[in-house]
Design goal:
2 domains; mainly alpha; 85 residues; 0% strand; 4 helices
């Protein structure tokens, strides 16, 4: 089966992408209306980094965004996280 064209992919994905962007905008609006500030929160920094990656015109966006939210590999992860063998 041949790959879809970019236009076909956009036709298929546009409404879902639009809906998710609007949902994200609404969540940021709720955050803005809330009391206090989260400016120093590292999670907000991760979200801002991820949004920057999404707007970059480069391949492998999903992988780069996943890495933003992932821990770096720790060979001693069991000990670090207290996992019993």
């Amino acid at each position: 089966m041949p790959l879809a064209t970019a236009a076909e992919t956009l036709d298929r994905e546009f409404l879902e992408m639009r809906a998710r962007i609007l949902e994200l905008a609404a969540r940021f609006d709720r955050l803005d209306r809330s009391e206090g500030s989260v400016q120093g929160d590292p999670r907000l920094s991760q979200i801002q980094q991820a949004l920057a990656e999404l707007s970059a015109a480069r391949a492998e966006r999903a992988e780069r965004v996943q890495l933003i939210f992932s821990r770096t590999y720790d060979a001693n992860w069991k000990q670090t996280l207290g996992v019993q063998d």
